[in-house]
């Protein structure tokens, strides 16, 4: 068979799944093409996200700050890539939300005079943009904001099992010196951080779903 015949909309591929009517139609061909395009987009986004993580990880290992990879926003690319590759919408959303709230906190630190490195810019803003693309592909499950904070609370409790208190990763060991909650007891300061994240991500979910996302209830 001529290879050009395979490009015709009315051509039925040998491995084509049967349609409801038992006949391969133009609509079936268009749906198959869309599926292939979505699959390519999933792989492309996953590769870009993993590339961001690889650069960030390589620099931190080289400079002796590998422990900082346990920050939620540094783990986020792995969750996002896993969600994209496996089609797990809630896993992808968890990674996106971690980097979304992490970018807010990181930006506040920048405004307070704490200079950021180029790979931190790449990780935060790069994953934020790529995460929006992933949500366009996978959809946006409801209720992700409280699941994100619950997962972060669990990460805080697990962090001390893997590293010491250097740099206070995930604020798992105490209040950040010089922060706006520095004068408060740790449990109150942590509650403010978690509560603020809950409210912020709830607003983000509402805005994304109302403005330009198609909500999906399952992931």
Report a brief summary of the structure:
By secondary structure, the protein is mainly alpha-helical. It is built from 6 helices and no strands.
Report on the structure:
The protein has 219 residues and is mainly alpha-helical. The protein has one domain. It has six helices and no strands. It has helices spanning 26-62, 72-86, 89-111, 118-138, 144-158, 186-211. Helix 1 runs antiparallel to helix 4. Mean pLDDT is 80; it is low at 1-12, 19-24, 26-34 and 215-219.
Features:
219 residues, mainly alpha, 0% strand, disordered N terminus, disordered C terminus
The percentage of residues in β strands lies in: under 5%
Arithmetic mean pLDDT: 80
Largest sheet: none
Order of helices and strands: HHHHHH
Spatial shape: globular
The percent range for helix content is 55-70%
In the predicted model, the low-confidence regions spanning at least 5 consecutive residues are: 1-12, 19-24, 26-34, 215-219
Distance between the ends: 41 Å
Number of strands: 0
Classify the secondary structure makeup into a structural class.
mainly alpha
> What Rg do the Cα atoms give?
21 Å
By DSSP (H or I, 4+ residues per run), the number of helices equals: 6
Count of domains: 1
